[in-house]
């Protein structure tokens, strides 16, 4: 008799639009169970009707600790476990580092970093008890390569890169896998309604930050990445026994990382004598 693979239980954040919505559909279409969460659930009505019995839709603000605890408890109560956590919720902030206020900076980090950590910490005890699990975090190519006008957003994604790389080493021996996904430009609302601008705008940064703002203004609807294909690639990671620690999505993302590695290699080679000059002389 052929063994039927057990259906997985997924918890995905930010399901109302973009990648989150496409990931939710991909999970349900493969027959798995899904806890779909979002600040607003009205965009999930079609999925609820089409996949009744597979789907639990819950309102979630990842900056609210009690809300996070309630959602994880409800997910386990409904389906008995959580096999895959997809940390997708977040937003972008565009503006020069100097232009960003303390409040704008805190809000950016509270959602993208602290909210993501809050939910991950809430799910980890369940996964440790199970002795298995898979955590996917949606970073960005901006988590590996910085650009003018994206410094605070870069900061949140760079933070996730470091934190979840460390987490992968901590939970790997416990049977829990981690993958950090770095998408390039995909045809979502990231460059539109999911992007915020700093309230301050200084003329001195027009030639750098202004160029980035104009780039995003013209980007919506022309991004090369297909969110449905990206979602399929992300969901398929759960079928691998050894998923990658990092996965770049899109040709442009791959090129930007390779270009940066080339710059790094040249920089390391040029400054190698200085790097090697500061250690104590070896004692014979």
Structure description:
- By secondary structure, the chain is of the alpha/beta class.
- It has one domain (9-275): NAD(P)-binding Rossmann-like Domain (Rossmann fold, 3-Layer(aba) Sandwich).
- The chain has eight helices and nine strands.
- The chain has helices at 18-29, 45-50, 65-79, 102-130, 151-171, 209-217, 227-236, 251-275, and strands spanning 9-12, 33-38, 55-59, 84-87, 92-94, 133-138, 176-183, 195-197, 246-249.
- The strands form two sheets. A seven-stranded parallel sheet has the order 3-2-1-4-6-7-9, with helices on both faces. The chain has a two-stranded parallel sheet with strand order 5-8.
- β2 (33-38), α2 and β3 (55-59) form a beta-alpha-beta unit.
- The longest helix has 29 residues, at 102-130.
- It is globular.
- The mean pLDDT is 91.
């Amino acid at each position: 008799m052929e063994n039927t693979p057990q259906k997985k239980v997924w918890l995905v954040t930010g399901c109302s639009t973009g990648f989150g919505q496409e990931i939710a559909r991909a999970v349900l279409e493969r027959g798995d169970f899904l806890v779909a969460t979002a600040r607003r659930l009205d965009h999930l009505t079609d999925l609820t009707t089409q996949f009744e019995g597979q789907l639990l839709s819950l309102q979630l603000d990842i900056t609210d600790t009690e809300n996070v605890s309630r959602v994880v408890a409800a997910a386990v109560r409904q389906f008995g476990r959580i096999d895959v956590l997809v940390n997708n919720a977040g937003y972008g902030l565009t503006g020069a580092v100097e232009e960003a206020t303390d409040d704008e900076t805190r809000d950016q980090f509270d959602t993208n970093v602290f909210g993501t950590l809050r939910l991950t910490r809430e799910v980890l005890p369940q996964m440790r008890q199970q002795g298995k699990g898979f955590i996917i975090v949606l970073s960005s190519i901006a988590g590996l390569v910085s650009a003018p006008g994206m410094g605070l957003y870069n900061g949140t994604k760079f933070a996730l890169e470091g934190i979840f790389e460390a987490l992968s080493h901590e939970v790997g021996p416990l049977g829990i896998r981690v993958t950090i996904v770095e998408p390039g430009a995909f045809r979502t609302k990231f460059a539109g309604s999911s992007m915020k601008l700093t309230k301050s705008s200084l003329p001195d940064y027009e030639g750098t930050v202004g160029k980035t703002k104009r780039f995003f203004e013209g980007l919506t609807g022309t991004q090369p990445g297909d969110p449905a294909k990206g979602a399929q690639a992300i969901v398929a990671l759960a079928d691998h026994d050894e998923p990658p620690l990092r996965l770049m999505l899109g040709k442009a993302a791959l090129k930007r990382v390779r270009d940066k590695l080339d710059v790094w290699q040249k920089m390391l080679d040029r400054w190698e004598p200085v790097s090697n000059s500061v250690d104590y002389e070896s004692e014979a």
